[in-house]
Write a sequence for this structure.
């Protein structure tokens, strides 16, 4: 099985960006932890971060036929990118939406995810464990497919 992890805008600044909200873990720490877990489970994993909506649309389109799952933190685009929502709907790859913070207990504009109606599920509020929980679900689902 293969999984693609997509990180949206400003997530390259994790570690120094509003640490009271997002913690001190860097993006490369997150990617390293996920890579280690995936490797132990025999799952191939790739990572991509972009601050550009179109680059994320391209990455989703190019994932078609190449990946079994996408773990996606669309960051601020979560709340208004119809282009990303349409890309997810178009490729029909199951996407797990993740957020480090609990978007539902923050500003009102973060309560809505325009991606939520087209993803498999959403995990938020667990800090960097949101990513790890998503990966755990992917590992279990891939194992179930192989049975
Ligand atoms: C975020 C939540 C978004 O509202 C915000 O714009 C982000 C990060 C999170 O991981 O908690 O950039 O997706």
């Amino acid at each position: 099985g293969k999984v693609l992890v997509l990180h949206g805008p400003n997530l390259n600044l994790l570690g120094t960006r509003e640490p009271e909200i997002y913690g001190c873990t860097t993006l490369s720490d997150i990617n390293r932890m996920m890579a280690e877990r995936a490797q132990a489970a025999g799952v191939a994993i790739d990572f991509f971060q972009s601050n550009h909506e179109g680059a994320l649309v391209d990455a989703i389109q190019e994932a078609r036929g190449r990946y079994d799952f996408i773990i996606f933190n669309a960051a601020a685009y979560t709340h208004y990118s119809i282009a990303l929502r349409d890309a997810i709907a178009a490729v029909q790859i199951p996407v797990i939406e993740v957020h480090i913070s609990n978007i539902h207990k923050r500003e009102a504009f973060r309560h809505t995810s325009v991606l939520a109606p087209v993803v498999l599920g959403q995990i938020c509020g667990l800090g960097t464990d949101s990513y790890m929980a998503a990966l755990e679900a992917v590992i279990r689902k891939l194992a179930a497919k192989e049975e």
The longest helix spans residues 129-146.
